[in-house]
Write a structure and sequence with these properties.
Layout lengths: L17 H14 L4 E7 L2 E10 L8 E9 L8 H15 L4 E7 L3 H8 L3 E11 L5 E10 L1
The protein binds coenzyme A.
């Protein structure tokens, strides 16, 4: 996915161990109840995942961030991302979180997906994420009141 230029926090080529270290930190966050993660598998392995990061600060008890929506290239275009977004939204509601935030690279598939799912653009930050091949791209910050 990183090699396909997906803007998910990493640059291609990833140094050995970087992905494993990332997932270990996520596992620690799950164990600490700071992160909720959903993963979908088929017979060939994982095909989709998404995370919810409920804000930990006292004044953010109503808020959560949606993160790392990823669908494997072989499973795309079948509605899995929409199902994962619906799942995370329902979980946030169940936790009493009524404000969701996320950000994504400007102009990508996810940018238009979030708009169609009722998310509102709060603004754009230029030069936010470096690209594997050089240069950088803007991120769009979205929110949704649920
Ligand atoms: C963005 C991503 C999660 C979409 O996953 P997906 O399971 O293929 O998405 P869905 O099948 O649920 O499709 C959702 C919508 O996007 C559209 N879509 C999906 N892939 C598309 C593409 N390549 N080009 C244009 N539209 C596309 C679908 O037609 C659908 O539109 P609809 O609302 O009109 O029905 C997937 O492409 C991905 O993992 N990309 C790399 C990681 C990434 O960028 N994640 C977002 C980080 S914030």
């Amino acid at each position: 996915m990183v090699a396909d230029d997906a803007s998910v926090g990493f640059l291609h080529p990833m140094p050995a161990g970087e992905a494993a270290a990332f997932w270990r930190a996520i596992a620690d966050g799950i164990a600490a109840r700071d992160i909720l993660l959903w993963a979908v598998e088929d017979g060939g392995g994982p095909i989709g995942t998404i995370q919810l990061h409920p804000a930990g600060k006292p004044n953010g008890a109503h808020r959560a961030e949606v993160a790392k929506l990823m669908v494997h290239p072989r499973a795309r275009g079948r509605g899995l991302a929409k199902q994962l977004m619906a799942t995370v939204e329902q979980a946030a509601r169940d936790l009493g979180r009524r404000l969701l935030v996320l950000d994504t690279v400007e102009g990508g598939v996810a940018d238009s997906l979030y708009r169609r799912l009722g998310w509102t653009e709060a603004g754009k930050i230029p030069d936010f994420a470096l690209k594997s091949g050089g240069g950088s791209e803007a991120t769009v910050v979205f929110f949704k009141q649920i």
